[in-house]
Amino acid sequence: MGFSDYRTALVTGASSGIGAATVRRLSAEGLEVHAVARDATRLAALSAETGCEVCAADVNDLGALTELAGAVEFDVLVNNAGQSRRGNILDTSTGDVDVLVDVNLRAVLHLTRLIVPGMARRDRGHIVNISSIAGHYAFGENATTFNSSVVYHATKAGIHSLSQQLRVDLYGTSVRVTEVSPGRVATSIFQNPATSDDRDAHFVGEFETLQPEDIVEAIAFAVGSPMRMNVAMLEVVPTLQVVGELRFANRSGTTRSQR
Predict the structure, then answer these.
(1) If 0-12 CB within 10 Å is exposed, 13-18 middle and 19+ buried, where does residue 254 land?
(2) What are the boundaries of each domain within the chain?
(3) Which residues, at least 6 apart from 215, have a Cβ–Cβ distance to it below 8 Å?
(4) Catalytic site residue 152?
């Protein structure tokens, strides 16, 4: 199994949600896990629980990431850190664009360029990129309840493209690349004051929602698969969630939906 071929892992966005659950699972599989997040208090508690190594830093702190990547030869990289905002291109702010591009895409690109060349040289490694169904589908009026924005969609589409291109760039090596693309997951991203409101609590409380552990099961399946097998992409959504709709606007400006 793949876990036995790996010794070290780096997980971003590790202080809560999918990231913390991933740290727990990889630690239980016997890997030395390095957890990166901004919340030092939560990281300390996670370290006490799992024995993971912690790095309290923002993923946009290129100096900290460069130092970490130079100190450890990572076999598994889980690019999980991400933020969301609500709104469309008609009301997106400069700050929203900068934050989402920096956290969701720029940081992933930097970590990838810092860590993956070493994997290729050692002919061993696995990159797991957490994207979103927002990177594959366009949402209509449901975008507000999904808690996403046009910039979020664009950055997650970038992660999808990156994951595909990495497979090409790593051709001929044993380094594997997996994109895990979740639907709605009950994580702390919905407690972000810039994105959440009563609609989020209503959505999570009354509708079927994935749990972080569900996404970790997908990650574990991919990383734990035999080395001959690369799980390139997993789309994981609640059973009762369906993506896709067709809408028409008539000449009066009103809309109709066909599902």
Answers:
(1) exposed
(2) 2-258
(3) 18, 21, 22, 130, 180, 182, 185, 236
(4) yes
Mean pLDDT of 61-84: 96
Task: Tell me the per-residue pLDDT of 230-246, one tens digit each, with 9 for 90 and over.
Answer: 999 999 999 988 887 77
Diameter of the chain measured on Cα atoms: 62
Give the three-state DSSP class for 87.
Answer: strand
The predicted model scores a pTM of 0.88
* Lookup result for tokens 């599902």: 259
pLDDT single digits (tens) 57-68: 999 999 999 999
- Tokens 């994105």 sit on residue: 195
- Tell me: domain 2-258, CATH 3.40.50.720, correct? yes
> Which stretches of the chain are assigned E, i.e. beta strand?
8-12, 32-37, 53-56, 76-79, 126-130, 176-182, 233-236, 246-249, 255-258
DSSP three-state, residue 197: coil
Distance, in Å, from the CA atom of 227 to the CA atom of 124, rounded to the nearest integer, reads: 10
**Residue 178: CA count within 13 A, CB half-sphere:** 26
- Which entry of 6, 137, 152, 171 is annotated as an active-site residue? 152
CA distance 149 to 100: 10
Q: Which helix (H) or strand (E) holds 23?
A: helix 17-28
Cα 98 to Cα 112: distance, rounded to the nearest angstrom: 20
Q: Which two tokens stand for residue 127?
A: 């990159």
Residue 21 corresponds to which tokens in the numbers above?
Answer: 């659950």
**In Å, what is the CA distance from 33 to each residue of 25, 129, 155, 239?**
10, 16, 26, 31
